[in-house]
Design goal:
Length: 235
């Protein structure tokens, strides 16, 4: 009996370590987004370099957590809710790594935007606004993962629709700029790539919130409507 209890406690400790590492990775990715947007608005070359250079740390975190999950599956053979938790972690770190890629992409676009003299300084008000929404979604998704908060998860899925609307508004604005003044085409396209990267961050945060529903309810809610997810959470 004592041996079984020891094994159970060790298993619980392994699961807690994985959860902690996911949240640490998530926190670092949040910092990457914040720095990338700062780099974009300030044109700070040092920050740009830091974001791009730190992307390998995000990749290393993903590999490390994935290896731990593989060991847990091989040694502990988890079932039911424990297995769902491990599967959720594996999916979540994949999305976090891709969010890290988007942050690095924003930094690279910032470098491009500030690499040459521009006749017109670009405006980033709308981009910063949607970035705040997407970054907030990521923070809430991590919090929902930590607390197993289904209501928060459902709210994040709804917020993704707002990010999509904001992206479309920025796209329309940039098209107008380019039509009115061809000199703005180059910068407008670079800003468009930034806006698309932010929209993708929102998509990944939404994915993460859907994994929380799967972890708690055992229901795969990918590729269903927001209303269906909300009904599942209430049920």
């Amino acid at each position: 009996m004592a041996i079984k209890e020891h094994i159970s406690k060790r298993f619980d400790a392994d699961l807690e370590e994985v959860r902690t590492r996911v949240l640490q990775m998530g926190g670092f990715v949040e910092e990457q987004i914040e720095r990338a947007i700062d780099a974009l608005t300030e044109g700070n070359e040092t920050i740009i370099d830091q974001v791009i250079d730190n992307d390998h740390r995000v990749n290393a975190m993903e590999v490390s957590i994935d290896e731990i999950c593989s060991q847990i599956i091989a040694l502990r053979q988890p079932t039911a809710s424990d297995l769902r938790m491990i599967m959720t972690v594996i999916k979540t770190i994949t999305d976090l790594e891709r969010i890290g890629d988007e942050a690095a992409k924003i930094a690279r676009m910032a470098r491009l935007i500030y690499s040459t003299d521009r006749l017109h300084a670009p405006r980033f008000v709308e981009v910063k606004h949607v970035a705040q929404i997407a970054s907030g979604m990521l923070h809430q998704a991590l919090d929902a993962f930590a607390r197993l908060d289904l209501n928060a998860a459902a709210r994040i899925v709804r917020q993704d629709e707002l990010v999509d609307e904001e992206f479309r508004a920025i796209l329309r604005q940039l098209i107008t700029f380019m039509m009115e003044d061809p000199r703005k085409i180059s910068t407008s396209l670079e800003i468009l790539f930034v806006a698309k990267a932010i929209e993708r961050i929102g998509d990944h945060a939404k994915n993460m919130s859907e994994y929380v529903v799967y972890m708690v309810k055992g229901k795969d809610v990918r590729h269903v409507t927001v209303e269906e997810i909300e009904r599942e959470v209430r049920g």
